[in-house]
């Protein structure tokens, strides 16, 4: 779906030494069935796909894990630490995920509040330091705060993932200024994670110049998840292309597009 | 026949047959290739599952990947 013009002007999207073609990453949660999930992921064009670590259901041993539906050779599986409310829990889940998975990448979440699911900054930094020392490539889910982002980068994170708005809220990019500032000041990739609600949100987010977007609910909870995944793919490409193209300056007054000369008397 | 061993698996008390973690997985109908085993808070890698014996009072977590964001 990406045109030759866009790709020719773009730089590779590399995280933790791995280069990817798609700047859209997608989650695998909340789909009504596995077939819809797989078709939506295919329609999104995403290569990086997030998964969660949970107990096996012992009463239904026929229950299939998500790996039964996703080919790990085809998709880059990114384990998360969703649901963890302390650094210790997040580190434990990250290690289990590395064992279950196929790489040493982790999407690190340390949540501080049940209602907003906003990150616990202190716990996040503590867990990030531990996991980096342990050899993980840490992609840290963060609030959109520059100082936190700088500290995460300084701790050795492979990417920083500021939120657009709270997880699952669909409120879109609430603070473009902060996300732009984080992108400008960090050297590691900045991937906006959480809060995108529809394609325009994804487009506006990419127009800020960030390296990518991770989303789940916006696709999974759409009325037609496969069609929305396609829309998101286009929106991410369009937003990226517009950023690279460089937008016109904003003006407070109108400037005519048609010549002012040559008007009839 | 040896007496069973009282352990906690995924938060539930269970009486299991004496044996290794690998044998426990088999008894539960789980494929060791699709499950990660944490035994008393320590991850036991697949090749070692047949070498670790389950003892009374052990806490065992069996996890896998599920859908998530």
Task: Report what the structure shows.
The complex is a heterodimer of chains A (265) and B (69). Chain A has helices at 4-9, 34-44, 87-100, 121-133, 146-154, 176-185, 199-207, 217-220, 225-245; strands at 13-15, 18-20, 24-26, 48-55, 76-80, 105-108, 137-142, 159-162, 191-193, 212-215. In chain A, α2 (34-44) runs parallel beside α9 (225-245), α3 packs across α4 and α7 (199-207) runs parallel beside α9. Chain A has one domain (4-245): Aldolase class I (TIM Barrel), CATH 3.20.20.70. Chain A has nine helices and ten strands. Chain B is mainly beta and 69 residues long. Chain B has one domain: Ubiquitin-like (UB roll) (Roll). Helices cover 10% and strands 38% of the residues of chain B. Chain B contains one helix and five strands. Chain B has one helix at residues 21-27; strands spanning 5-9, 12-16, 36-39, 42-44, 59-67. Chain B has a five-stranded mixed sheet with strand order 2-1-5-3-4, with no helix packed on it. In chain B, β1 and β2 form a beta hairpin. In chain B, 25% of the residues are buried.
Topology, element by element:
The complex is a heterodimer of chains A (265) and B (69).
Chain A: H1 4-9, E1 13-15, E2 18-20, E3 24-26, H2 34-44, E4 48-55, E5 76-80, H3 87-100, E6 105-108, H4 121-133, E7 137-142, H5 146-154, E8 159-162, H6 176-185, E9 191-193, H7 199-207, E10 212-215, H8 217-220, H9 225-245
Helix pairs in contact in A: 2-9, 3-4, 7-9
Chain B: E1 5-9, E2 12-16, H1 21-27, E3 36-39, E4 42-44, E5 59-67
Parallel strand pairs in B: 1-5
Antiparallel strand pairs in B: 1-2, 3-4, 3-5
Name some characteristics of this structure.
heterodimer, A: 265 residues, alpha/beta, TIM Barrel, 5-stranded parallel β-sheet, 3-stranded parallel β-sheet, 9 helices, 37% helix, 16% strand, globular, B: mainly beta, Ubiquitin-like (UB roll), 1 helix, 5 strands, 10% helix
């Amino acid at each position: 779906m990406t045109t030759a013009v866009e790709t020719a002007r773009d730089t590779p999207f590399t995280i933790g030494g791995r280069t990817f073609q798609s700047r859209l990453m997608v989650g695998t949660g909340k789909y009504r069935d596995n077939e819809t999930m797989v078709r939506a992921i295919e329609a999104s064009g995403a290569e990086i796909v997030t998964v969660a670590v949970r107990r096996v259901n012992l009463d239904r041993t026929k229950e299939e894990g998500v790996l039964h539906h996703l080919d790990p050779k085809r998709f880059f599986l990114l384990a998360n630490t969703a649901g963890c409310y302390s650094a210790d829990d997040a580190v434990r889940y990250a290690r289990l995920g590395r064992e279950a998975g196929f790489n040493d990448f982790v999407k690190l979440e340390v949540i501080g509040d049940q209602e907003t699911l906003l990150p616990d900054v202190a716990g996040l930094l503590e867990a990030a330091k531990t996991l980096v020392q342990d050899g993980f490539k840490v992609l840290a889910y963060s609030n959109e705060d520059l100082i936190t982002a700088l500290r995460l980068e300084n701790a050795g994170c492979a990417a920083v993932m500021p939120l657009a708005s709270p997880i699952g809220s669909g409120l879109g990019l609430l603070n473009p200024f902060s996300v732009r500032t984080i992108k400008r000041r960090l050297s590691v990739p900045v991937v906006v994670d959480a809060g995108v609600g529809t394609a325009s949100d994804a487009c506006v987010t990419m127009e800020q110049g960030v390296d990518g977007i991770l989303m789940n609910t916006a696709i999974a909870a759409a009325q037609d998840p496969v069609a929305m995944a396609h829309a998101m793919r286009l929106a991410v490409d369009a937003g990226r292309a517009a950023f690279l193209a460089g937008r016109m300056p904003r003006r407070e007054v109108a400037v005519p597009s048609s010549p002012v000369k040559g008007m009839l008397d | 026949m040896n007496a069973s061993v009282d352990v906690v698996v995924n938060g539930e008390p269970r009486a299991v047959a004496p044996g290794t973690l690998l044998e426990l997985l088999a008894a539960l109908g789980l494929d060791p290739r699709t499950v990660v085993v944490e035994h008393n808070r320590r991850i036991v890698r697949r090749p070692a599952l047949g070498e670790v014996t389950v003892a009374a009072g052990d806490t065992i977590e069996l996890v896998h990947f599920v859908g998530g964001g």
